[in-house]
C-alpha cells in the first residue's frame, strides 16, 4: 500500500524550518528530512523557499485577480524587435508567462557560452537579512555576469531583450549566464525583492523593484533541468534558442506570489541559460 504524502505544511513545521535555517541547517538537509516524514517534495520545497526568500504569501481565493497583472507583452503571436521577429508559443495569464521562440540563434547561444566559460564562479543569492550576495546550496550553479553592452554580442542581446520586455535597455540588469551540471538546481524562489526583508532595501534603492524576467536557453538539457512554477503546476523543458518570459509586479506595485519558480535538478548533461531581469527604473548595470 502506497503511503499518502502530506500536501500541507502546518505552523509547527513552518516554525521548525525557520529555526533549522537560523541554526545553520542547509535547505537540502531540511528537504531530505521532510521527505522522510512523507511530505510531498514540491510542497516541501515551496515551504523551504518561503522561509529562505520570504516574499508574499499566496493570496486567499478570489483576491488579486488575473486582471490585476496585465502583461507588458504586446498582443498577438509575434513580437517585433529591431533585428528579428519573436514567435509567441504559449501564454499564461496568471502569473504572466510566455514561451518565446527564435529569441537567440545557435551562434548567439554558443557565443554566450564561450564568453562565459572562463568567467564562471559559484552562483550566489541575495541574503534576506543583509542583502549581500551569498553562496547557498539552494542554488547549485556557476555563473558569469556581463555588464550592459560590454561586447557586440552582449549589446545585441541587450537591445533585443529590451524590445521583447517592452522596457528601456537602461532598466535592465546585466546579462547573467548560468551553467548547471548533473544534480544542479535552483530551489523555488521569487525573482522580486521581498519588501519586508531588510536585505532588499539596498537593491530596491538602486533601480527599484524587479518587474520581469526573461530566461534564454543556450542548449537543450539532455534530461531534467525544467523550469518549474510549482504553484500553478507549470513546467517548461529547455530548448536551445527559446526564452521563458514572466512578470511579477503589477502597475500598482502588487507582487505576484504565483511567480514562485525554480530550476529542477539536471539529470544528464548540462543546462546553460542566460537571464535578463528588468527593474522599475534605470539601473546602473
UniProtKB/TrEMBL annotation:
Any Pfam family matching the protein: 2OG-FeII_Oxy_3
Q: What is this protein called?
A: 2-oxoglutarate-dependent dioxygenase
Record-linked InterPro entries? Oxoglu/Fe-dep_dioxygenase_dom, P4HA-like, Pro_4_hyd_alph, Pro_4_hyd_alph_FE2OG_OXY
Q: Which cofactor does it need?
A: L-ascorbate
Source domain of life is Bacteria
Q: What is the native source organism of this protein?
A: Luteibacter pinisoli
Instruction: Return the SMART domains for the record.
Output: P4Hc
Keywords in alphabetical order, please: Dioxygenase, Iron, Metal-binding, Oxidoreductase, Vitamin C
